[in-house]
Design goal:
The complex is a heterodimer. Chain A is of the alpha/beta class. Chain A contains twelve helices and 13 strands. In chain A, the strands form three sheets. In chain A, strands 2-3-1-4-5-6 form a six-stranded mixed β-sheet, sandwiched between helices. Chain A has a five-stranded mixed β-sheet with strand order 8-10-11-13-12, covered by helices on one side. A two-stranded antiparallel sheet of chain A has the order 7-9. The chains are: A alpha/beta, B alpha/beta.
Protein backbone atom coordinates (compact mmCIF):
# COMPACT_ATOMS: atom_id res chain seq x y z
CA UNK A 1 0.00 0.00 0.00
CA UNK A 2 1.29 3.44 -0.92
CA UNK A 3 -0.07 6.72 0.32
CA UNK A 4 -0.45 9.68 -2.00
CA UNK A 5 -0.42 13.17 -0.53
CA UNK A 6 -3.16 15.45 -1.79
CA UNK A 7 -3.19 19.17 -1.11
CA UNK A 8 -6.45 21.11 -1.52
CA UNK A 9 -6.06 24.84 -2.09
CA UNK A 10 -9.47 26.50 -1.99
CA UNK A 11 -10.82 29.48 -0.07
CA UNK A 12 -14.14 27.75 0.57
CA UNK A 13 -13.85 25.77 3.82
CA UNK A 14 -16.72 23.52 2.71
CA UNK A 15 -14.80 22.33 -0.35
CA UNK A 16 -11.67 21.65 1.69
CA UNK A 17 -13.34 19.66 4.42
CA UNK A 18 -15.50 17.91 1.83
CA UNK A 19 -12.48 16.69 -0.08
CA UNK A 20 -10.75 15.52 3.08
CA UNK A 21 -13.87 13.68 4.22
CA UNK A 22 -14.50 12.00 0.87
CA UNK A 23 -10.92 10.83 0.45
CA UNK A 24 -10.38 9.71 4.03
CA UNK A 25 -11.47 6.13 3.49
CA UNK A 26 -11.00 6.03 -0.27
CA UNK A 27 -8.69 3.48 -1.82
CA UNK A 28 -7.58 2.82 -5.37
CA UNK A 29 -6.53 -0.74 -6.12
CA UNK A 30 -4.55 -2.21 -8.95
CA UNK A 31 -4.76 -5.89 -8.08
CA UNK A 32 -2.97 -7.00 -11.24
CA UNK A 33 -0.02 -4.86 -10.39
CA UNK A 34 -0.19 -5.70 -6.70
CA UNK A 35 -0.43 -2.07 -5.89
CA UNK A 36 -2.95 -0.04 -3.90
CA UNK A 37 -3.14 3.61 -2.92
CA UNK A 38 -4.77 5.52 -0.12
CA UNK A 39 -4.71 9.25 0.47
CA UNK A 40 -3.59 11.77 3.00
CA UNK A 41 -5.01 15.26 2.57
CA UNK A 42 -3.61 18.68 3.43
CA UNK A 43 -5.66 21.87 3.30
CA UNK A 44 -4.79 25.47 2.46
CA UNK A 45 -7.15 28.42 2.14
CA UNK A 46 -4.77 30.61 0.13
CA UNK A 47 -2.18 30.14 -2.59
CA UNK A 48 0.51 31.42 -0.25
CA UNK A 49 -0.33 28.86 2.42
CA UNK A 50 -0.50 26.21 -0.30
CA UNK A 51 3.01 26.96 -1.51
CA UNK A 52 4.29 26.60 2.04
CA UNK A 53 2.76 23.14 2.29
CA UNK A 54 4.07 22.24 -1.17
CA UNK A 55 7.61 23.09 -0.07
CA UNK A 56 7.29 21.31 3.25
CA UNK A 57 5.31 18.20 2.43
CA UNK A 58 5.86 17.57 -1.30
CA UNK A 59 2.34 16.48 -2.24
CA UNK A 60 1.79 14.20 -5.23
CA UNK A 61 -1.43 15.89 -6.28
CA UNK A 62 -2.65 19.45 -5.81
CA UNK A 63 -6.33 20.32 -6.17
CA UNK A 64 -6.28 23.98 -6.97
CA UNK A 65 -8.96 26.63 -7.13
CA UNK A 66 -8.06 29.40 -9.54
CA UNK A 67 -9.95 32.18 -7.79
CA UNK A 68 -8.15 32.76 -4.51
CA UNK A 69 -8.02 35.73 -2.16
CA UNK A 70 -4.28 36.47 -2.55
CA UNK A 71 -2.22 35.10 -5.40
CA UNK A 72 -4.21 33.30 -8.05
CA UNK A 73 -4.23 29.61 -8.85
CA UNK A 74 -2.34 30.22 -12.08
CA UNK A 75 0.52 31.68 -10.08
CA UNK A 76 0.68 28.62 -7.83
CA UNK A 77 0.78 26.55 -11.02
CA UNK A 78 3.61 28.63 -12.34
CA UNK A 79 5.51 28.21 -9.08
CA UNK A 80 5.20 24.45 -9.36
CA UNK A 81 6.28 24.57 -12.99
CA UNK A 82 9.25 26.76 -12.27
CA UNK A 83 10.53 24.48 -9.52
CA UNK A 84 9.88 21.51 -11.77
CA UNK A 85 8.11 19.64 -9.02
CA UNK A 86 6.72 16.28 -9.88
CA UNK A 87 3.17 17.22 -8.94
CA UNK A 88 -0.05 16.66 -10.81
CA UNK A 89 -2.14 19.78 -10.55
CA UNK A 90 -5.89 19.59 -10.91
CA UNK A 91 -7.84 22.80 -11.25
CA UNK A 92 -11.09 22.91 -9.28
CA UNK A 93 -13.23 25.33 -11.18
CA UNK A 94 -16.77 26.34 -11.79
CA UNK A 95 -16.06 26.71 -15.47
CA UNK A 96 -16.79 23.31 -16.87
CA UNK A 97 -15.75 23.99 -20.45
CA UNK A 98 -12.29 24.84 -19.32
CA UNK A 99 -11.41 21.23 -19.86
CA UNK A 100 -10.49 21.62 -23.48
CA UNK A 101 -8.18 24.51 -22.87
CA UNK A 102 -6.46 22.69 -20.08
CA UNK A 103 -6.11 19.56 -22.17
CA UNK A 104 -4.38 21.56 -24.82
CA UNK A 105 -2.25 23.35 -22.30
CA UNK A 106 -0.41 20.31 -21.29
CA UNK A 107 0.30 16.84 -22.37
CA UNK A 108 -0.62 15.12 -19.16
CA UNK A 109 0.57 17.72 -16.69
CA UNK A 110 -2.78 18.64 -15.23
CA UNK A 111 -6.47 18.05 -15.27
CA UNK A 112 -9.57 19.66 -13.88
CA UNK A 113 -12.63 19.00 -11.76
CA UNK A 114 -15.74 21.15 -12.29
CA UNK A 115 -17.30 22.72 -9.23
CA UNK A 116 -19.66 21.79 -7.65
CA UNK A 117 -18.79 18.10 -7.70
CA UNK A 118 -20.35 15.03 -6.12
CA UNK A 119 -18.29 12.64 -4.00
CA UNK A 120 -18.46 10.17 -6.87
CA UNK A 121 -17.08 12.69 -9.35
CA UNK A 122 -14.21 13.56 -7.06
CA UNK A 123 -13.44 9.89 -6.51
CA UNK A 124 -13.38 9.06 -10.19
CA UNK A 125 -11.15 12.03 -10.93
CA UNK A 126 -8.79 11.02 -8.18
CA UNK A 127 -8.83 7.47 -9.48
CA UNK A 128 -7.77 8.66 -12.93
CA UNK A 129 -5.03 10.83 -11.53
CA UNK A 130 -3.81 8.03 -9.31
CA UNK A 131 -3.55 5.91 -12.39
CA UNK A 132 -1.42 8.59 -13.94
CA UNK A 133 0.81 8.92 -10.88
CA UNK A 134 1.13 5.15 -10.82
CA UNK A 135 1.98 5.00 -14.53
CA UNK A 136 4.48 7.76 -14.13
CA UNK A 137 6.16 5.87 -11.31
CA UNK A 138 6.16 2.69 -13.35
CA UNK A 139 7.53 4.48 -16.37
CA UNK A 140 10.35 5.92 -14.38
CA UNK A 141 11.08 2.48 -13.03
CA UNK A 142 10.95 0.55 -16.26
CA UNK A 143 12.02 3.20 -18.75
CA UNK A 144 8.80 2.13 -20.35
CA UNK A 145 8.07 3.43 -23.80
CA UNK A 146 4.34 3.24 -23.26
CA UNK A 147 1.71 4.84 -25.41
CA UNK A 148 1.50 8.01 -23.35
CA UNK A 149 5.17 8.80 -23.88
CA UNK A 150 5.03 7.81 -27.50
CA UNK A 151 2.09 10.13 -28.03
CA UNK A 152 3.82 13.00 -26.30
CA UNK A 153 6.95 12.40 -28.32
CA UNK A 154 5.07 12.31 -31.59
CA UNK A 155 3.09 15.45 -30.90
CA UNK A 156 6.22 17.38 -30.02
CA UNK A 157 7.96 15.90 -33.03
CA UNK A 158 5.20 17.00 -35.36
CA UNK A 159 5.47 20.49 -33.88
CA UNK A 160 9.24 20.47 -34.45
CA UNK A 161 8.81 19.34 -38.03
CA UNK A 162 5.96 21.69 -38.81
CA UNK A 163 7.65 24.85 -37.55
CA UNK A 164 10.41 24.89 -40.21
CA UNK A 165 7.91 23.95 -42.92
CA UNK A 166 5.69 26.86 -41.92
CA UNK A 167 8.64 29.23 -42.10
CA UNK A 168 9.82 27.95 -45.45
CA UNK A 169 6.31 28.20 -46.81
CA UNK A 170 6.04 31.76 -45.50
CA UNK A 171 9.28 32.81 -47.16
CA UNK A 172 8.30 31.16 -50.44
CA UNK A 173 5.00 33.02 -50.43
CA UNK A 174 6.88 36.23 -49.72
CA UNK A 175 9.06 35.57 -52.76
CA UNK A 176 6.14 34.56 -54.94
CA UNK A 177 4.16 37.66 -54.05
CA UNK A 178 7.29 39.83 -54.35
CA UNK A 179 6.19 41.41 -51.12
CA UNK A 180 9.69 42.67 -50.31
CA UNK A 181 9.82 44.90 -53.38
CA UNK A 182 11.48 44.55 -56.78
CA UNK A 183 15.14 44.20 -55.79
CA UNK A 184 16.42 40.61 -55.90
CA UNK A 185 18.89 41.17 -53.08
CA UNK A 186 16.15 41.70 -50.58
CA UNK A 187 15.16 38.07 -51.08
CA UNK A 188 18.62 36.69 -50.29
CA UNK A 189 17.81 36.83 -46.62
CA UNK A 190 14.74 34.68 -47.18
CA UNK A 191 16.74 32.12 -49.14
CA UNK A 192 19.43 31.97 -46.45
CA UNK A 193 16.84 31.45 -43.75
CA UNK A 194 15.15 28.70 -45.76
CA UNK A 195 18.46 26.90 -46.24
CA UNK A 196 19.12 27.20 -42.52
CA UNK A 197 15.74 25.69 -41.64
CA UNK A 198 16.25 22.86 -44.13
CA UNK A 199 19.61 22.14 -42.54
CA UNK A 200 17.87 22.01 -39.18
CA UNK A 201 15.33 19.50 -40.44
CA UNK A 202 18.07 17.34 -41.87
CA UNK A 203 19.88 17.28 -38.51
CA UNK A 204 16.61 16.41 -36.83
CA UNK A 205 16.17 13.43 -39.12
CA UNK A 206 19.72 12.24 -38.41
CA UNK A 207 19.11 12.56 -34.67
CA UNK A 208 15.86 10.66 -35.01
CA UNK A 209 17.73 7.85 -36.75
CA UNK A 210 20.19 7.77 -33.84
CA UNK A 211 17.29 7.66 -31.44
CA UNK A 212 15.71 4.75 -33.29
CA UNK A 213 19.00 2.92 -33.09
CA UNK A 214 19.14 3.52 -29.34
CA UNK A 215 15.59 2.41 -28.74
CA UNK A 216 15.83 -0.74 -30.79
CA UNK A 217 19.26 -1.17 -29.23
CA UNK A 218 19.13 -4.60 -27.70
CA UNK A 219 18.61 -6.61 -30.84
CA UNK A 220 21.02 -4.80 -33.09
CA UNK A 221 23.79 -4.03 -30.69
CA UNK A 222 27.19 -5.43 -31.48
CA UNK A 223 29.11 -5.51 -28.22
CA UNK A 224 32.77 -6.29 -28.33
CA UNK A 225 35.99 -5.16 -26.77
CA UNK A 226 37.15 -1.88 -28.15
CA UNK A 227 39.52 0.94 -27.34
CA UNK A 228 37.52 3.96 -26.24
CA UNK A 229 40.53 6.12 -26.85
CA UNK A 230 40.42 5.32 -30.57
CA UNK A 231 36.77 6.29 -30.71
CA UNK A 232 37.45 9.55 -28.93
CA UNK A 233 40.26 10.27 -31.38
CA UNK A 234 38.06 9.58 -34.40
CA UNK A 235 35.30 11.79 -33.01
CA UNK A 236 37.76 14.61 -32.43
CA UNK A 237 39.18 14.25 -35.93
CA UNK A 238 35.69 14.42 -37.38
CA UNK A 239 34.95 17.60 -35.43
CA UNK A 240 38.29 19.24 -36.21
CA UNK A 241 37.16 21.28 -39.24
CA UNK A 242 34.17 22.60 -37.30
CA UNK A 243 36.35 23.60 -34.35
CA UNK A 244 38.95 25.31 -36.56
CA UNK A 245 36.15 27.28 -38.17
CA UNK A 246 35.10 28.48 -34.73
CA UNK A 247 38.68 28.93 -33.48
CA UNK A 248 38.34 26.41 -30.69
CA UNK A 249 41.14 24.15 -29.47
CA UNK A 250 40.31 20.44 -29.13
CA UNK A 251 42.39 18.41 -26.68
CA UNK A 252 42.32 14.73 -25.78
CA UNK A 253 43.73 13.54 -22.44
CA UNK A 254 44.21 10.19 -20.72
CA UNK A 255 46.23 7.05 -21.10
CA UNK A 256 45.81 5.17 -24.36
CA UNK A 257 44.33 2.51 -24.49
CA UNK A 258 41.12 2.34 -22.43
CA UNK A 259 39.44 -0.99 -23.14
CA UNK A 260 35.70 -1.38 -22.86
CA UNK A 261 33.02 -3.87 -23.91
CA UNK A 262 30.52 -1.87 -25.90
CA UNK A 263 28.99 -1.20 -29.28
CA UNK A 264 31.32 1.07 -31.19
CA UNK A 265 28.57 2.95 -32.99
CA UNK A 266 26.90 3.78 -29.69
CA UNK A 267 30.14 5.02 -28.19
CA UNK A 268 30.64 7.20 -31.27
CA UNK A 269 27.20 8.74 -30.77
CA UNK A 270 28.13 9.62 -27.16
CA UNK A 271 31.43 11.28 -28.11
CA UNK A 272 30.05 13.03 -31.19
CA UNK A 273 27.16 14.58 -29.31
CA UNK A 274 29.15 15.69 -26.28
CA UNK A 275 32.05 17.10 -28.29
CA UNK A 276 29.91 18.84 -30.91
CA UNK A 277 27.85 20.46 -28.13
CA UNK A 278 31.06 21.58 -26.43
CA UNK A 279 32.13 23.31 -29.65
CA UNK A 280 28.69 24.62 -30.54
CA UNK A 281 28.03 26.27 -27.19
CA UNK A 282 31.59 27.55 -26.81
CA UNK A 283 33.04 31.00 -27.33
CA UNK A 284 35.38 31.93 -30.11
CA UNK A 285 38.97 31.24 -29.02
CA UNK A 286 37.80 28.77 -26.37
CA UNK A 287 38.75 25.16 -25.83
CA UNK A 288 37.29 21.70 -25.40
CA UNK A 289 39.03 19.14 -23.23
CA UNK A 290 38.06 15.51 -23.60
CA UNK A 291 39.40 12.99 -21.10
CA UNK A 292 39.03 9.22 -21.19
CA UNK A 293 40.15 7.40 -18.06
CA UNK A 294 39.40 4.40 -15.90
CA UNK A 295 39.66 3.07 -12.39
CA UNK A 296 38.74 -0.36 -11.04
CA UNK A 297 34.98 0.37 -11.03
CA UNK A 298 34.21 2.46 -14.04
CA UNK A 299 35.36 4.14 -17.21
CA UNK A 300 34.91 7.87 -17.30
CA UNK A 301 34.46 10.18 -20.28
CA UNK A 302 34.83 13.86 -19.42
CA UNK A 303 34.05 16.63 -21.84
CA UNK A 304 34.81 20.10 -20.59
CA UNK A 305 34.24 23.36 -22.43
CA UNK A 306 34.83 27.07 -21.89
CA UNK A 307 31.49 28.10 -23.31
CA UNK A 308 28.33 29.90 -22.35
CA UNK A 309 27.39 27.44 -19.60
CA UNK A 310 23.93 26.44 -18.38
CA UNK A 311 21.79 28.03 -15.69
CA UNK A 312 21.20 26.00 -12.56
CA UNK A 313 17.46 25.85 -13.16
CA UNK A 314 17.93 24.47 -16.67
CA UNK A 315 20.41 21.77 -15.71
CA UNK A 316 17.92 19.03 -14.94
CA UNK A 317 15.87 19.48 -18.10
CA UNK A 318 18.64 19.23 -20.65
CA UNK A 319 18.50 15.45 -20.91
CA UNK A 320 14.81 15.40 -21.89
CA UNK A 321 13.61 14.96 -25.47
CA UNK A 322 13.43 18.13 -27.55
CA UNK A 323 14.64 20.42 -24.79
CA UNK A 324 16.62 23.39 -25.95
CA UNK A 325 17.63 26.17 -23.63
CA UNK A 326 16.43 29.40 -25.13
CA UNK A 327 18.26 32.57 -24.31
CA UNK A 328 19.92 35.53 -25.96
CA UNK A 329 23.14 33.49 -26.04
CA UNK A 330 21.66 30.47 -27.76
CA UNK A 331 19.30 32.12 -30.19
CA UNK A 332 21.62 31.80 -33.16
CA UNK A 333 22.66 28.26 -32.37
CA UNK A 334 20.65 25.59 -34.11
CA UNK A 335 19.91 22.20 -32.68
CA UNK A 336 17.19 19.63 -32.36
CA UNK A 337 17.08 19.19 -28.61
CA UNK A 338 17.63 15.47 -29.03
CA UNK A 339 21.41 15.05 -28.73
CA UNK A 340 21.68 14.85 -24.95
CA UNK A 341 18.46 12.83 -24.72
CA UNK A 342 20.07 10.25 -26.97
CA UNK A 343 23.29 10.24 -24.95
CA UNK A 344 21.34 9.81 -21.71
CA UNK A 345 19.36 6.87 -23.09
CA UNK A 346 22.56 5.19 -24.26
CA UNK A 347 24.29 5.71 -20.95
CA UNK A 348 21.23 4.27 -19.17
CA UNK A 349 21.40 1.20 -21.39
CA UNK A 350 24.94 0.62 -20.17
CA UNK A 351 23.75 1.13 -16.58
CA UNK A 352 26.01 4.14 -16.48
CA UNK A 353 25.58 7.64 -15.18
CA UNK A 354 25.73 11.01 -16.84
CA UNK A 355 26.29 14.17 -14.85
CA UNK A 356 26.80 17.79 -15.65
CA UNK A 357 28.18 20.73 -13.74
CA UNK A 358 28.15 24.18 -15.20
CA UNK A 359 28.99 27.81 -14.54
CA UNK A 360 27.13 30.33 -16.69
CA UNK A 361 29.62 32.19 -18.94
CA UNK A 362 32.50 29.96 -17.84
CA UNK A 363 31.68 26.57 -19.24
CA UNK A 364 30.16 23.16 -18.66
CA UNK A 365 31.57 19.79 -17.74
CA UNK A 366 29.84 16.58 -18.73
CA UNK A 367 30.87 13.33 -17.13
CA UNK A 368 29.80 9.89 -18.33
CA UNK A 369 30.64 6.90 -16.16
CA UNK A 370 30.24 3.41 -17.52
CA UNK A 371 30.53 0.62 -14.95
CA UNK A 372 33.08 -2.02 -15.83
CA UNK A 373 31.49 -5.06 -14.23
CA UNK A 374 27.84 -4.52 -15.27
CA UNK A 375 26.58 -5.75 -18.64
CA UNK A 376 24.55 -3.46 -20.83
CA UNK A 377 20.78 -3.87 -20.69
CA UNK B 1 -8.46 55.05 -37.11
CA UNK B 2 -4.89 56.04 -37.68
CA UNK B 3 -2.92 52.83 -38.12
CA UNK B 4 0.47 54.49 -37.87
CA UNK B 5 -0.13 55.17 -34.24
CA UNK B 6 -1.09 51.61 -33.41
CA UNK B 7 1.58 49.27 -32.13
CA UNK B 8 1.20 45.52 -32.12
CA UNK B 9 3.28 43.30 -29.85
CA UNK B 10 4.34 40.05 -31.52
CA UNK B 11 5.70 37.20 -29.43
CA UNK B 12 6.99 33.97 -30.94
CA UNK B 13 10.05 31.84 -30.23
CA UNK B 14 10.49 30.95 -33.91
CA UNK B 15 12.52 33.85 -35.30
CA UNK B 16 11.44 33.14 -38.86
CA UNK B 17 7.78 33.03 -38.03
CA UNK B 18 8.25 36.26 -36.08
CA UNK B 19 10.00 37.93 -39.01
CA UNK B 20 7.31 36.89 -41.48
CA UNK B 21 4.54 37.98 -39.15
CA UNK B 22 6.26 41.31 -38.61
CA UNK B 23 6.51 41.90 -42.37
CA UNK B 24 2.87 41.02 -42.75
CA UNK B 25 1.66 43.26 -39.92
CA UNK B 26 3.82 46.15 -41.07
CA UNK B 27 2.42 45.78 -44.57
CA UNK B 28 -1.01 46.36 -43.01
CA UNK B 29 0.35 49.69 -41.79
CA UNK B 30 0.94 49.00 -38.08
CA UNK B 31 4.04 49.46 -35.97
CA UNK B 32 5.45 46.34 -34.30
CA UNK B 33 7.21 45.38 -31.10
CA UNK B 34 8.94 42.00 -31.05
CA UNK B 35 9.78 39.46 -28.37
CA UNK B 36 11.11 35.93 -28.73
CA UNK B 37 10.02 34.54 -25.39
CA UNK B 38 7.54 34.90 -22.57
CA UNK B 39 10.30 36.45 -20.50
CA UNK B 40 11.29 38.99 -23.14
CA UNK B 41 7.66 39.95 -23.64
CA UNK B 42 7.17 40.44 -19.91
CA UNK B 43 10.13 42.80 -19.84
CA UNK B 44 8.79 44.67 -22.86
CA UNK B 45 5.38 45.34 -21.37
CA UNK B 46 7.04 46.77 -18.28
CA UNK B 47 8.32 49.59 -20.47
CA UNK B 48 5.71 50.01 -23.15
CA UNK B 49 2.03 49.53 -23.78
CA UNK B 50 1.12 48.12 -27.17
CA UNK B 51 -2.39 48.45 -28.60
CA UNK B 52 -2.75 44.76 -29.34
CA UNK B 53 -0.72 41.59 -28.80
CA UNK B 54 -0.34 38.41 -30.83
CA UNK B 55 1.18 35.57 -28.79
CA UNK B 56 2.46 32.15 -29.68
CA UNK B 57 1.20 29.42 -27.36
CA UNK B 58 4.16 27.04 -27.02
CA UNK B 59 7.37 28.87 -26.16
CA UNK B 60 9.59 28.19 -23.14
CA UNK B 61 6.81 25.99 -21.82
CA UNK B 62 3.90 24.50 -23.65
CA UNK B 63 1.53 26.99 -22.04
CA UNK B 64 3.73 30.12 -22.07
CA UNK B 65 1.17 31.91 -24.23
CA UNK B 66 -1.59 31.41 -21.65
CA UNK B 67 0.55 32.59 -18.76
CA UNK B 68 1.76 35.59 -20.72
CA UNK B 69 -1.79 36.42 -21.73
CA UNK B 70 -2.89 36.24 -18.10
CA UNK B 71 -0.06 38.56 -17.06
CA UNK B 72 -0.63 41.11 -19.81
CA UNK B 73 -4.35 41.23 -19.06
CA UNK B 74 -3.58 41.74 -15.39
CA UNK B 75 -1.56 44.81 -16.27
CA UNK B 76 -3.67 46.07 -19.18
CA UNK B 77 -7.15 44.55 -18.86
CA UNK B 78 -8.39 46.33 -22.01
CA UNK B 79 -5.56 45.28 -24.29
CA UNK B 80 -6.85 42.87 -26.97
CA UNK B 81 -4.87 39.64 -27.23
CA UNK B 82 -4.73 37.06 -29.99
CA UNK B 83 -3.19 33.69 -29.27
CA UNK B 84 -1.81 32.18 -32.44
CA UNK B 85 -1.28 28.48 -32.31
CA UNK B 86 -0.48 25.52 -34.47
CA UNK B 87 -1.85 23.18 -31.83
CA UNK B 88 -5.39 22.73 -33.06
CA UNK B 89 -4.37 21.51 -36.47
CA UNK B 90 -1.95 18.99 -34.95
CA UNK B 91 -4.12 17.45 -32.31
CA UNK B 92 -7.59 18.00 -33.67
CA UNK B 93 -8.53 19.65 -30.40
CA UNK B 94 -10.19 23.00 -30.82
CA UNK B 95 -10.88 25.50 -28.13
CA UNK B 96 -13.87 27.70 -28.03
CA UNK B 97 -12.69 31.02 -26.75
CA UNK B 98 -15.92 32.71 -27.66
CA UNK B 99 -17.44 30.76 -24.81
CA UNK B 100 -17.92 33.16 -21.92
CA UNK B 101 -16.51 30.73 -19.38
CA UNK B 102 -13.28 30.05 -21.20
CA UNK B 103 -12.72 33.71 -21.71
CA UNK B 104 -12.84 34.29 -17.97
CA UNK B 105 -9.98 31.91 -17.47
CA UNK B 106 -7.63 32.44 -20.35
CA UNK B 107 -8.78 35.94 -21.14
CA UNK B 108 -7.53 35.91 -24.73
CA UNK B 109 -9.82 37.67 -27.15
CA UNK B 110 -9.14 35.40 -30.11
CA UNK B 111 -7.51 32.10 -30.90
CA UNK B 112 -6.20 31.91 -34.42
CA UNK B 113 -4.55 29.19 -36.41
CA UNK B 114 -1.01 29.97 -37.45
CA UNK B 115 -1.70 29.23 -41.11
CA UNK B 116 -4.43 31.87 -41.26
CA UNK B 117 -4.76 33.93 -44.46
CA UNK B 118 -3.44 37.49 -44.45
CA UNK B 119 -6.78 39.14 -45.16
CA UNK B 120 -8.45 37.23 -42.36
CA UNK B 121 -5.72 38.21 -39.90
CA UNK B 122 -5.99 41.82 -40.98
CA UNK B 123 -9.72 41.73 -40.50
CA UNK B 124 -9.44 40.22 -37.01
CA UNK B 125 -6.92 42.85 -35.95
CA UNK B 126 -9.09 45.67 -37.24
CA UNK B 127 -12.13 44.26 -35.45
CA UNK B 128 -10.31 44.04 -32.13
CA UNK B 129 -8.77 47.49 -32.44
CA UNK B 130 -12.16 49.03 -33.21
CA UNK B 131 -13.56 47.68 -29.96
CA UNK B 132 -11.25 49.70 -27.77
Amino acid sequence: MSTLKILVIDDEPGIRSGVSRILKNFRVDYPFMEEAFDFETYEASTGEAGIEIIDKNQPDIVLLDNKLPGIQGVEVLEYIRKKQLNIIVVMITSYASLELAVKVTSVGAYDFIPKPFTPQELKSSIENITKRVFLRKMTNKLQDTGKQIRFQFLSVLSHELKAPLNSIEGYLRMIKERSSGPSLESYDFAVDRMLERIKGMRTLILDLLDLTKVESGKSKRDVKELNLFDIARTAIDTMRPYSIQRDIRLNLHGLDPVKVNADSEEMEIIFNNLISNAIKYNKEGGSVDCTVRENEHYIEILVEDTGIGINQEDLNKIFDDFVRIKSEKTRNITGTGLGLAIVKKLVDNYQGKIEVTSQPDQGSKFSVRLPIDKPCL
Amino acid sequence: MNKQNKTILLVDDDQDYLYLLKSKIESFGYQTLLAESQKEAEELIEKSKPDLAILDLMMENEDSGFILCYKIKKKFPELPIIIATGVAAETGITFDINDENNRKWIKADRFLEKGIRSEKLKEEIEKLLLKI
